[in-house]
Design goal:
Order of helices and strands: HHHEHEHEEEHEEEHEHHHEHHEHH
Structural class: alpha/beta
Strand order of the largest sheet: 2-5-8-1-9
CATH class of the largest domain: Alpha Beta
Distance between the termini: 17 Å
Shape: globular
Number of helices: 14
CATH topology of the largest domain: Rossmann fold
Mean pLDDT: 85
Helix content: 40-55%
Largest sheet: 5 strands, parallel
Low-confidence stretches: none
Strand content: 15-25%
CATH architecture of the largest domain: 3-Layer(aba) Sandwich
Length: 330
């Protein structure tokens, strides 16, 4: 691609990303800190990818998702996952109308643009599989009828890393459906001071509608046009293949720690997320830093660890860090 073409894409990106500063300002009135989490939610919006948020209770996971949905002119629904939840509670069901002697479809809360699946690992396998069809196929089957879900359609799921009793861990096939798995940490001392003051003041902050669906869909089209050089593409492939064949990339020491590597879906996700990261930085081309910035969130739920890794206290982040410091950057 010619330099002039990249410059043209950059101008297009800067024009279509004009909403970003206003969106950040609006959400910052409600969410203190957690800029990285908000960026990841935006990456999901820009790439049609679903997001899994994991963190301790009280870290504003639910509030962040609700705030973003308020800033976007779209429909929001929340599903509180519990062990007694049924698939019909999520997708809907058919109901008989005796007056008309016919069945009609009552749609469930999955029919929304933003679907917050709160504590997703508390629902049984049947409910998780019903959600899987919606995430993967973007359609819902109720009885003999199939309904397409309107765009944008984004599942934002949360799960708690503690209190694992009575939970149903997500199977690898379903976890792999999430574009990113984002881990949320505690706020800094200064941020927590602001959180206390805001809550004691009891302000009811209204988030204005910043982003329309039309603007979002245009932004998605622009993200697809962002230039990715073949060297950056090869860098992504090297990262993914180093999780499957560590010895071929000088990573013999981590080979006994990985039970299975990242799937081809991870390659696609890393490329898409890197493009979206470039959009957030208002650039028309992808750099290796964009890939590095998002690699943890793309890969942490796609690497299987051996018992040896768990015995040594080595987690996915440590393995990804080793890969990123070893694989040659173009």
């Amino acid at each position: 691609m010619q330099r002039t073409d990249v410059e043209a894409i950059t101008r297009l990106v800067q024009a279509e990303s004009a909403f970003l500063p206003k969106l950040a300002e609006a959400t910052a009135k409600v969410i203190v800190g957690q800029e990285a989490m908000m960026d990841r939610l935006l990456i999901g919006l820009l790439t049609r990818g679903h997001i899994l948020l994991e963190g301790m209770p009280g870290l504003a996971k639910t509030l962040a998702i609700k705030t973003l949905s308020e800033a976007v002119d779209a429909k929001f629904s929340r599903i509180q996952f519990t062990p007694d939840l049924l698939p019909a509670d999520v997708v809907g069901t058919t109901i008989y109308n005796p007056a008309k002697a016919e069945f009609y479809v009552r749609k469930g809360p999955i029919f929304a643009n933003f679907v917050l699946a709160d504590e997703i690992n508390r629902a049984p396998a049947k409910v998780q599989s019903a959600l899987l069809e919606a995430m993967a196929e973007r359609q819902i089957t109720i009885g003999s009828d199939t309904f397409k879900l309107e765009e944008p359609f984004l599942v934002l799921a949360t799960q708690n890393p503690i209190e694992q009793e009575g939970t149903y861990p997500l199977p690898e096939a379903q976890v792999d459906r999430f574009l990113l798995k984002v881990k949320i940490g505690y706020p800094t001392l200064e941020n927590e001071r602001q959180i206390i003051r805001r809550n004691l003041n009891g302000e009811d902050i209204k988030v204005p509608k910043i982003l329309t669906i039309d603007t979002l869909l245009r932004a998605r089209d622009v993200v697809k046009k962002i230039y990715m050089d073949e060297k950056v593409e090869q860098y992504i492939l090297n990262i993914i293949f180093s999780t499957r064949e560590p010895a071929n990339f000088g990573l013999q020491q981590i080979a006994p720690l990985i039970s299975y590597g990242a799937s081809p879906r991870a390659s696609i996700a890393l490329a898409q997320a890197a493009r979206a990261m470039a959009f957030l930085n208002r650039r028309g081309f992808v750099t290796p830093d964009d890939v590095k910035a998002i690699a943890n969130d793309v890969l942490r739920h796609r690497l299987g660890l051996t018992y040896e890794a768990e015995a040594e206290g080595i987690d996915q982040e440590a393995i990804i860090a080793k890969i990123l410091t070893t694989v040659i950057v173009p």
